[in-house]
Amino acid sequence: MPRIENLNLALDPAGLAGLLSQYETVEAFLLRKTSARGSSTQAVEQLVAHIATHMAPKPRDGGVLHQELQDHARLLPTGCSSLDSLLHGGYREGHVTELWGPPASGKTQLCMLAAAVTATRGEGVVYMDTTASCSAALDSLSVSLQAQQGKQHRPRLLILDSASAVVAPILGGEGPANQGHALMCILGQQLRALARAYTLAVLVTNHSAGGGGGAQEPRPALG
């Protein structure tokens, strides 16, 4: 954040000196504003007004923001009413939803159901059934989505079944577990970037991972 002396505040030398004796930067003032001893009330009020006018984000009505979310961030039905209720309407465009659990727990069936429901609605689906590393496929998908920007039938749902295939060769061999976790985090970042850039609802399946500690509670692995 800028230094207070560079803000061109309309203060007399004594008022400015009082502020500078305690705070060098705007950040320091915001963090320690309650300890403004030695500074005149006028100097403090003028600095607060300058920050509110030129630096602070403009306030927005919560109802308007909620309506914008409803208008622009669509929900894709899952095909299962109870799951729709749990997700407050379905898979949200611009977000990544991770389905995780042990093998044969129904993850792929939910992916197929989501793909069928979305396709039935006349909207595009990209279904990636991974059997090996999918990093190159994600890069190719990004290029393809750029080419389809603005087209009527561009994909709305991206399904990756499953993310575990990306790190399985490392976790199943001699590679360290933290390397597998790092790869999973990178994959998660790529998927979130795709979701935001192209307004995609992204659905990912993954095996559950131990939660650490004595209880070993399961947790999602994408982070």
Structural commentary:
With 223 residues, this protein is of the alpha/beta class. The chain has 2 domains: 4-54, no CATH class; 68-219, P-loop containing nucleotide triphosphate hydrolases (Rossmann fold, 3-Layer(aba) Sandwich), CATH 3.40.50. The protein contains 9 helices and 8 strands. The strands form 3 sheets. The chain has a 4-stranded parallel β-sheet. Strand 7 and strand 8 form a beta hairpin. Helix 7 (135-147) packs parallel to helix 9 and helix 8 (164-171) runs antiparallel to helix 9 (177-198). It is elongated and about 75 Å long. It holds the Pfam family Rad51. It is found in: Nucleus.
Largest sheet descriptor: 4 strands, parallel
CATH topology of the largest domain: Rossmann fold
Number of strands: 8
The H-and-E topology, N to C, reads as: HHHHEHEEHEHEHHEEE
Name the CATH class of the largest domain. Alpha Beta
Alpha-beta content class: alpha/beta
Mean pLDDT: 77
Helix percent band: 40-55%
CATH architecture of the largest domain: 3-Layer(aba) Sandwich
Shape: elongated
Name of the CATH homologous superfamily of the largest domain? P-loop containing nucleotide triphosphate hydrolases
The N- and C-terminal alpha carbons lie at a distance of 31 Å
**What strand line-up does the widest sheet have?**
3-6-5-4
Radius of gyration: 25 Å
Strand content: 5-15%
How many domains comprise the coordinates? 2
